[in-house]
Amino acid sequence: MQNKMMIEKLVQFTHLEKFYGYLPGMDEALQARLFGLDPEEYRAVKNRFDANARDTALELLEDGSLARRVDRLPFRAGQTVVGVGDSITDDLQSWLEIVRYLLQERRPRDGIRVVNVGLSAHTTAMVLRRFVPNVVASKPDWILCLLGGNDGTRVGPEPNKPQVSPEETAKNLEAMRRIAKEQTGAEWVWITPPTYDEERASTFPPFKMGQSVFRNDDIVAIGDYIREQEEPVVDIQEVFGMPADPGLQGPDGVHPSLEGQKAIARAFVERLAP
């Protein structure tokens, strides 16, 4: 049972086609085998997470006020909306997948294209390296940026350091924004990375094994930088609270639960369609 849960988590957050889709043999059958599954099992796991995203969107649309806000989201018919992020976006039941279904259910005739280029375990430096082929090449009309969580991750015993310094995080985000402005003309939306449940993260076995340390002070510093930007900001740190609401964070204290992803999607809609 434990092994099955671990494999399902890997499928939820690890999408090999985003890294190696250019390889001619990177088909569904190979991806399934790499997870120790046959294609039917692999498809079933992915479909369960996809169903979670759709069901969550339908739950949100039961709120008539929110449904009308979805109608007013500033995306025009035929536009391409690209979500840039780490595992919080790459998650098969992420806020972006929920937003995808909100648009499909409420505005099916608009043909709005939602592209998820979230990459699990990526820092801003790693996303910057892939920004042109992944984001610019998608020809976005809108770019939704939720990054920084992996930058603040510390490794090893005290004294330790973030993987990416706050100063370098700011430079990486500024570089992405500049490239997007010069090469796409896309509208830009910032989303602050959610706060952590530090206690839960400190006892999560994989994090303990890897000596990964997560501090809210680090993630809030990134949020402070984002809140200073001139473009629209969806402040998820305000939604999650400090420390994070345990009901919005998952078992590891770092990755939002489905309820947390739902809260991010709701906050996104409410901020862009007040």
TrEMBL record:
Pfam families per UniProt: Lipase_GDSL_2
- Domain of life, source organism: Bacteria
List the InterPro entries hit by this protein, alphabetically: Ester_Hydrolysis_Enzymes, SGNH_hydro, SGNH_hydro_sf
Keyword flag Transmembrane helix: no
Q: State the Gene Ontology terms under molecular function.
A: phosphatidylcholine lysophospholipase activity
Keyword Hydrolase assigned to the entry: answer is yes
Q: What keywords are annotated for this sequence in UniProt?
A: Hydrolase
**Positions of the SGNH hydrolase-type esterase domain:** 84-263
| PANTHER family hit by this protein | SGNH HYDROLASE-TYPE ESTERASE DOMAIN-CONTAINING PROTEIN (PTHR30383:SF5), THIOESTERASE 1/PROTEASE 1/LYSOPHOSPHOLIPASE L1 (PTHR30383)
Indicate what this protein is called per its UniProt record: SGNH/GDSL hydrolase family protein
